[in-house]
Known about the structure:
The chain is of the alpha+beta class and 130 residues long. It is built from two helices and eight strands, in the order E-E-E-E-E-H-E-H-E-E.
Amino acid sequence: MTTRKIIKTDKAPEPVGPYNQAIAATGQMIFVSGQIAIDTKINQIVYTDDVSKQTEQVMANLEAILTEAGATWSNVVKTTVFLKDMNDFATVNAIYGKYFDPENAPARACVEVARLPKDVLVEIDCIAVL
């Protein structure tokens, strides 16, 4: 029997639609919804024209949710990076890389999309295993 636990923290942005920040399934897998550069202190998008700073905020939001679920970056097995502009790949990759040990980094997909929620520059989701 599969069990589901909703993961919710006030240290990451509230969902902007009908979804949760993350779901832990069968007590082992955590599916973290895509995070964008919302600062929970002001509940607004930050750094609207700076992909570096937006990426840092996205990673902070992901980390807050992982922590609430009892996970760390080392538990992450898969990420998806959505970019408004693939020319930002190297910049985002450099920041993203600070969070993972290269020898144990998760699988990843990175795609350019026409538009992201609230017109942000980057969105990242992840799957972790406890």
